[in-house]
Design a protein that fits this description.
- The structure is a single chain.
- The chain is α+β, with helices and mostly antiparallel strands and about 70 residues long.
- Helices cover about 30% and strands about 15% of the residues.
- It contains 2 helices and 3 strands.
- The longest helix is centred in the middle third of the chain and has 15 residues.
- About 10% of the residues are buried.
Length: about 70
């Protein structure tokens, strides 16, 4: 939950290795909005407290390479 409403990521995926991946896409015009910054913070806390079981990424401007980087690096 954010300070103003509920947070539902655009995609939640279970990876073949059993980890969960949450993806919240933001268009370039919305990436720096307060709401997006808060969602990135919530996602970072969720990921950091999962002991490696969960990943969060917020790609923007049609660049989904961040998803691949996140899955491969974690």
């Amino acid at each position: 939950q954010t300070s103003t409403d509920w947070f539902y990521p655009d995609f939640v995926c279970q990876l073949v290795d059993g980890r969960s991946l949450a993806v919240e896409y933001k268009g370039k015009d919305r990436y720096t909005a307060d709401d997006a910054e808060e969602k990135r913070a919530v996602g970072a806390v969720w990921e950091s407290r999962s002991e490696g079981r969960c990943l969060f990424v917020m790609p923007t401007a049609g660049d989904f390479s961040e998803v691949t980087k996140k899955v491969r690096s974690s």
